[in-house]
């Protein structure tokens, strides 16, 4: 089977968006006379500042905050840690509350100054409620709740909790007591080095997870912690393992869709996975000769190997007339009378809408994976060209840059579909779908040119790369909510 993408168009797409002429003047992507004078970081909607830190650097950052709060409120570092953890490391908020009412801050954080019950002050021996063993009073310890237990029982309690992965959330042993054990109290009762190390590691993880400016890199076996002063849904890329993720939620990067919407979408896809199984196949029938065709590349312009008919993989429409209708292919048409239909009709319409967006989401996800195979084939093709004396490796490097940009654009395009699915109908959605369609058309055009490029095509391909990236950044700039 052979496949092709949008017919080669020099520069801008020739698609006729007669209903959207008002957008064309505003999005004149060729007018870049002012852009050259601007710092690229200021015009990149995905840019934000972050640092990748090692564990010791994070420890130093956390300890500086602990020491600052401890100095301001004149409290122990251990108590400062509990307060910071329970208030998401907001020093200003803690300071304000503490000065207004110190006791309420301590109680709300489930800590208070520890005291020994007055009834025990004259007692030499007491019985531990856990092990029921009489021991001297100096062998007993308690938290602010005044529940007293022997040292051995505290040690056993802490070790059991730590082995279950609990650290900052370890509470008093007394039934229904919610008072938390500070770090210094726990460490005082842990004698085994491996237990102390495990406890401190778990505490470190809890502190990082509770800190709004810190995020663990989600890469496998990666110890890097990303730090940023801005909690934005922007792409953070680990300098160690190169994993890219959304800084705000820690999941796969999902611009322009926001964190809450992508969670709803992924949950819906998981819940409706059986319903959507029939559209996850890699094959479709040629609309002309009905022979079965397998999609083995990232592009949507297909050519039947049997009858040479050109058609769109998504809507199966004739590709010759597809240029003027591509916008309609990616856009879902709402039924204006659906509110007056029966419940069953509304359910069918809802499923139809979901499948429309899911199929395109899944198609671009698969296309990204197929682009990896395209890159492998590209390397083999370039190697063959070099061996044949048709240029050097340096002459062909621009193709790898183009392939990387293609993957970047297709990745963004994939995440435009959950965004569009949850958008309310109206002018803003029409504008979004217009930009979405233009980006999709330029991606198809770029993919076509990459697969067929020669050394003499470098200028034309770089121009197409510029167009595709500007389409992508324009869409993100208008619809990326951060």
TrEMBL record:
Record field: catalytic activity: [E2 ubiquitin-conjugating enzyme]-S-ubiquitinyl-L-cysteine + [acceptor protein]-L-lysine = [E2 ubiquitin-conjugating enzyme]-L-cysteine + [acceptor protein]-N(6)-ubiquitinyl-L-lysine
PROSITE patterns for this protein: TRIAD (PS51873), ZF_RING_1 (PS00518), ZF_RING_2 (PS50089)
Keyword terms of this UniProt record: Coiled coil, Metal-binding, Repeat, Transferase, Ubl conjugation pathway, Zinc, Zinc-finger
Domain RING-type: 124-333, 289-333
Top EC class, one word: transferase
Keyword Zinc: yes
Residues that span the membrane, as ranges: none
InterPro entries the UniProt entry points to: Ariadne (IPR045840), BRcat_RBR_TRIAD1 (IPR047555), E3_UB_ligase_RBR (IPR031127), IBR_dom (IPR002867), Rcat_RBR_TRIAD1 (IPR047556), TRIAD_supradom (IPR044066), Znf_RING (IPR001841), Znf_RING/FYVE/PHD (IPR013083)
EC number(s) per entry: 2.3.2.31
Coiled coil feature spans: 436-478
Protein name (Swiss-Prot/TrEMBL): RBR-type E3 ubiquitin transferase
Organism: Molorchus minor
